[in-house]
Design a protein that fits this description.
The complex is a heterodimer of chains A (about 400) and B (about 260). Chain A is α/β, with parallel strands linked by helices and about 400 residues long. Helix content of chain A is about 45%, strand content about 20%. Chain A has helices at about 30-40, 45-60, 70-75, 95-110, 120-135, 145-150, 150-160, 175-190, 205-215, 215-230, 245-250, 280, 320-325, 335-350, 355-370, 390-400, and strands at about 15, 20, 65-70, 80-85, 115-120, 135-145, 165, 190-195, 235-240, 260-265, 285, 290-295, 330-335, 380-385. Chain B is built from 12 helices and 9 strands. Chain B has helices spanning about 1-15, 35-45, 65-75, 80-90, 105-110, 110-120, 140-145, 160-170, 195-205, 220-225, 235-240, 245-255, and strands spanning about 20-25, 50-55, 100, 125-130, 150, 155, 175-180, 210, 230-235. Classes of the chains: A alpha/beta (about 400), B alpha/beta (about 260).
Chain lengths: ~400, ~260
C-alpha cells in the first residue's frame, strides 16, 4: 500500500492541470460564482451534510453493497471480482447521488426551478425524482433520438411531474441536450438551477458532481478492505462524461498500487468514426464550458458520438479524466458495442444481474483484464446502473435490428 | 487597421449625428462567394462596422435563427480558415471595419497565435468570443494586443456592478452590452432594467457602448440608442438576408441610423 502523493485538484480557478476552467457566456458567470460560493458553504455546514446523508441512507438506499461475484470470477479464472452495486440505488443508477445533493443546493440558493439534460434518461429520471421529492419545478432536455431509444424513461419523467423537451438539433443526443439546457439556463438563470448530470461543464460542476459521486469510492474502499483485508489491485468503470468513474476513482487516486481503468464507448470500433471515445481517439478543445478531450474535426467543429449506450453517447469527457489521462494515473481504453452486448448477457446469465449497457462496457473490459490477472488479486467493477431500461434495445440488437 | 479603424468609423458616424449600427451576418450562409457582395451592400447601407459570425457546431449563446444559419454555412463547407482567406482577398477593396464573432474552439483548433496573425493579414479589426469570460481570456488577450486588434468584451444584465466596471475598462473598440437575459434572437420588447444597465455601462466605458441580442426593428434600435451609442442586430438581419429581403435590411438600417429628438 502506498500513499505517495497528495491530490488536491481542482485548483482555485477550476483547473485540473491544463483542463477544466469555465468557458461560458458572461451571462452565466454570476450564477457559476454563486453556485461555487453556495457549494463551498454547504459542504462546511453540518446541517447540510446531515440532511444529504439522511436522504442518501433513507431515500436512495445507501450504502450500496459490494458483491463478490464468485461465479463470474470462477468462470473467468482470474482475479476475485467484486461488483459495486450502484444499480441498487433508488432509480436504478448512481445518478441520484448527484441529483439529491444538487437539489438540496438548489433549495439552499433559494431557487425553485431546475433544468437538466439527459442522455439515456437515467439522469433525467434521477433529477425528476428529487424534484418530485423536494417540490421543485423540473424541465428536462433530451435528444429526440434518445427519446426514441428510451421511451419508458420519458414516460417515467413525465409521471414524476417533469416536462420533457425533445431536442432535434444536431445529432439529437446528449451533446445537443446539453446545448439546449445551457440555452434554457441562460434565459432563466435568475430563478433556475442547472443540475448537470456528469463531471463535465464549467467549474464548479465537475468538482460538485465528483464530490457528490465520491461516496461510491469511499464506500468501496471501506468494503473491500472489510471483505478482503486489502485494497483492490484493479478498479474498472465506464466513462461517458465520467461521473460514476470519477466518483469511484477519487478515493483511490493517491493509492498508486491500485490500477484504475476507464472504459470509453468504442461503438462500431475506434478505427471507424462511429464511436464515443474522446480520450482514446480525440483531441483537446473547448465545449460546454470546459477545456477537455473532444471528438472534433480539423476545424474545431464537434463531431457526433456513436454508441449503443445512450449514456455514453457524448463527444467530450470530464476535464479531470483528461488530467488523469495525460498524467497516466488512469488507463483509458474502449469497448465496442458488440463486446458490451456480450458482457451484458454474460453477467446476466452468470450472476443474475442485468447491467445497464453503460456498465456492461466496464464488465466487458474487466473480462479482458481478468485474463492477465492472478487468482489472489482483486478487481472491482463499478456497476453504475441496472439494465432494465435497455432490455428492449438489447432484444432488437440481438435480433439483428440494431443500426445505431 | 484594427482598433484605430473601428474608432475612426464610429467617430465619423457620430459626427454625422447618427446612431451606430452594426449588423451581424453569418459567414458562409448563402455561400462564401457572396460574402464580399454582402459586406459591400451593408457598407453602402450606412453601417458603422460588420460583425461576421464564424459557424460553430455548438453555438450555446445563439437562438434558433443563427443556429440554423450556422448549420447552412457548415453544410456549405465554411471554415474559419476559408473565411479568413476570403477576407484577405477583398481586403484592399474594403473600408468598413470587420469584427469576427467566433466561439473559442475553432480559434483554439486553428492555433491562437496563428489565428491572430491570420486576422491581421485578413484585415480583421475586432474579435468577439461569446464563450470566453474575463477569467479565461488572458492567452487570447495577449496575442490580440500584439496585433492591435480590438478585443471586444460582452457585458450581461446579470453581471454585478464590479464586473461591469471591469468589463468596460477592458473592452476595446466598443463594449457589447447584451441586453436580454437569454440567447440571440428576435424579441418584441426589452426588460425595463435595460435602460439603467446601459446608462451604467456608459458611465463606466471609455469606448462606445452598443446594445445587442433581441434587437429586431428600428423602434427598438432608437429606444436603446437613447441610452447608449447604438445597436447590433443579428437574427433579424440573418433571417431577412436568407429570405432574400435585402430591401427590408436597407430600410431597417436606414430607419435606425437617424437620432430621434422626440421619443
Amino acid at each position: 500500500m502506498s500513499l505517495l502523493t497528495t491530490y488536491t485538484m481542482p485548483d482555485a480557478t477550476g483547473r485540473y492541470g491544463n483542463f477544466g476552467g469555465k468557458f461560458v457566456p458572461e451571462l452565466l458567470m454570476p450564477a457559476l460564482i454563486e453556485l461555487e460560493e453556495a457549494y463551498e458553504q454547504a459542504i462546511k455546514d453540518p446541517q447540510f451534510i446531515n440532511e444529504l446523508e439522511t436522504y442518501l441512507k433513507q431515500y436512495v438506499g445507501r450504502e450500496t453493497p459490494l458483491f463478490h461475484a464468485a461465479h463470474l470470477s470462477q468462470k473467468l479464472g482470474g482475479p476475485q471480482i467484486y461488483l459495486k452495486r450502484e444499480d441498487l440505488n433508488h432509480t436504478g443508477a448512481h445518478k441520484i447521488n448527484n441529483t439529491i445533493g444538487q437539489a438540496l443546493l438548489t433549495q439552499r440558493m433559494g431557487k425553485k426551478k431546475v433544468v437538466a439534460e439527459t442522455g439515456a434518461g437515467q439522469h433525467g429520471v434521477a433529477t425528476a425524482t428529487v424534484c418530485a421529492l423536494l417540490g421543485l419545478d423540473c424541465i428536462i432536455f433530451m435528444g429526440e433520438k434518445d427519446m426514441e431509444r428510451q421511451k419508458l424513461n420519458v414516460f417515467r419523467m413525465e409521471l414524476l411531474g417533469a416536462t420533457v423537451q425533445g431536442v432535434s438539433q444536431g445529432s439529437g443526443t446528449l451533446k445537443d441536450a446539453v446545448n439546449e439546457a445551457l440555452r434554457y439556463w441562460v434565459s432563466h438563470v435568475e430563478d433556475t438551477h442547472y443540475i448537470l448530470g456528469s463531471v463535465v461543464g464549467p467549474h464548479p460542476f465537475p468538482k460538485i458532481v465528483r464530490d457528490l459521486q465520491s461516496v461510491i469510492g469511499k464506500e468501496t474502499k471501506q468494503q473491500i478492505v472489510e471483505q478482503t483485508g486489502k485494497l483492490p489491485d484493479a478498479v474498472v468503470a465506464c466513462v461517458g462524461g465520467g461521473s460514476n468513474a470519477m466518483g469511484m476513482f477519487h478515493s483511490f487516486i493517491e493509492d498508486l498500487n491500485v490500477r484504475l481503468y476507464g472504459v470509453e464507448a468504442g461503438g462500431a470500433g475506434i478505427d471507424t468514426n462511429n464511436h464515443a471515445a474522446a480520450l482514446t481517439d480525440g483531441s483537446v478543445g473547448v465545449l460546454h464550458g470546459m477545456m477537455t478531450h473532444l471528438l472534433q474535426d480539423q476545424d474545431g467543429q464537434i463531431e457526433e458520438a456513436f454508441s449503443i449506450s445512450a449514456g455514453l453517447d457524448y463527444p467530450g469527457v470530464g476535464p479531470e479524466h483528461s488530467h488523469l489521462h495525460v498524467t497516466s494515473r488512469v488507463a483509458y481504453t474502449s469497448i465496442t458495442d458488440q463486446e458490451a452486448l456480450e458482457a451484458f448477457q454474460f453477467l446476466t446469465k452468470t450472476e443474475g444481474i442485468i447491467p445497464a449497457l453503460e456498465s456492461a462496457h466496464a464488465v466487458a473490459y474487466a473480462m479482458k483484464l481478468a485474463k492477465e490477472m492472478q487468482q489472489d488479486e482483486t478487481l472491482v467493477i463499478c456497476l453504475s446502473g441496472r439494465g432494465d431500461k435497455d432490455v428492449e434495445q438489447v432484444k432488437d440488437a440481438l435480433e439483428g435490428n440494431y443500426n445505431g | 487597421m484594427g482598433k484605430e479603424r473601428l474608432a475612426l468609423s464610429f467617430k465619423e458616424k457620430k459626427q454625422a449625428g447618427e446612431n451606430l449600427f452594426v449588423p451581424y451576418i453569418m459567414a458562409g450562409d448563402g455561400g462564401l462567394d457572396i460574402l464580399e457582395e454582402r459586406i459591400q451592400f451593408l457598407q453602402d447601407a450606412g453601417v458603422a462596422a460588420i460583425e461576421l459570425g464564424i459557424p460553430f457546431s455548438d453555438p450555446v449563446a445563439d437562438g434558433p435563427i443563427i443556429q440554423e444559419a450556422g448549420i447552412r454555412a457548415l453544410e456549405g463547407g465554411t471554415t474559419l480558415a476559408k473565411v479568413l482567406e476570403t477576407l484577405q482577398l477583398s481586403k484592399e477593396k474594403r473600408s468598413i471595419p470587420i469584427i469576427l464573432m467566433t466561439y473559442l474552439n475553432p480559434i483554439y483548433k486553428y492555433g491562437v497565435e496563428h489565428f491572430a496573425v491570420a486576422c491581421e493579414q485578413a484585415g480583421v479589426d475586432g474579435i468577439i468570443i461569446p464563450d470566453l469570460p474575463m477569467e479565461e481570456e488572458s492567452p487570447i488577450a495577449a496575442v490580440l494586443q500584439d496585433k492591435s486588434i480590438a478585443f471586444i468584451r460582452l457585458a450581461a444584465l446579470t453581471s454585478p456592478k464590479e464586473r461591469l466596471a471591469e468589463l468596460a475598462s477592458r473592452s476595446e473598440g466598443f463594449l457589447y452590452a447584451v441586453s436580454v437575459t437569454g440567447t440571440t434572437g428576435v424579441r418584441a420588447t426589452h426588460q425595463s432594467e435595460v435602460k439603467d444597465y446601459l446608462q451604467l455601462l456608459k458611465s463606466y466605458s471609455t469606448v462606445p457602448v452598443l446594445a445587442g441580442f433581441g434587437v429586431s426593428n428600428a423602434e427598438q434600435a432608437h429606444e436603446l440608442s437613447n441610452h447608449c451609442d447604438g445597436v447590433i442586430v443579428g437574427s433579424k438581419i440573418v433571417k431577412l438576408l436568407h429570405e432574400g429581403a435585402s430591401d427590408e435590411v436597407s430600410a431597417l438600417i436606414k430607419g435606425s441610423l437617424k437620432k430621434q429628438v422626440h421619443q
